[in-house]
Specification:
The structure holds two protein chains of two kinds. Chain A is mainly beta. Chain A is built from no helices and eleven strands. In chain A, strands 2, 4, 5, 6, 9, 10 and 11 form a seven-stranded mixed sheet that branches. Chain A has a four-stranded antiparallel sheet with strand order 1-3-8-7, with no helix packed on it. The mean pLDDT of chain A is 95. By secondary structure, chain B is mainly beta. Helix content of chain B is 0%, strand content 50%. Chain B contains no helices and eleven strands. Chain B has strands spanning 4-7, 10-13, 19-25, 33-38, 45-49, 53-54, 62-67, 70-75, 85-90, 97-98, 102-106. The chains are: A mainly beta, B mainly beta.
Chain lengths: 121, 107
Amino acid sequence: QVQLRESGPGLVKPSQTLSLTCSVSGDSIGRGGYYWGWIRQHPEKGLEYIGYIYYTGETFYNPSLKSRITISKDTSKNQLSLRLNSVTAADTAVYYCARAQVGHSAPLENWGQGTLVTVSS
Amino acid sequence: DIQMTQSPSSLSASVGDRVTVTCRASQNVADFVNWFQKKPGEAPKLLIYAASNLHSGVPSRFSGGGSGTDFTLTISSLQTEDFATYYCQQTYSNPPTFGQGTRIEIK
């Protein structure tokens, strides 16, 4: 059973860089067949797809965030990373990593528990 | 971006009720629609994929339907554990987008 766990600082100052790691167990991110993505939920609001990475290293970034984000992977550690530059209070959210099956409708089948990141001075 | 609009935004229902949530896409998304259940403090859970396919382990009281622009999520007999917020998502076109959510509350 695949498990994902997000980690990183819970508090980030405005204008700084948010860095999160997603540790994966029960599957290899170097194996094909799945996208590995990041999604966030702002307080009391809906879900926003940040982007994803494929085992080949191919990435997709939400255009609304594209200029500020980098998603990468470390296959040797079986980890994903998210970096979001120049954060503001609007980036305060619970951040989730998730695994989506490649194919029809690419459903996000497995999710981490999420980690709350607050942007505040 | 494709907009996904859910209705209602919230509803009150009783255990045993049949409940239907609607999701409308701003353009044709074929059947590239997934449905998720979200409870406070928990990760979202996939219920339905490709509009009408029940994800493994999800109770059969959940069902999905629709294609094109109009989709539904139905719970045939609401259970206590079903009180939560439900989201539709389209993956037809990047970026994938979610509806704003439908909160199901206990009447």
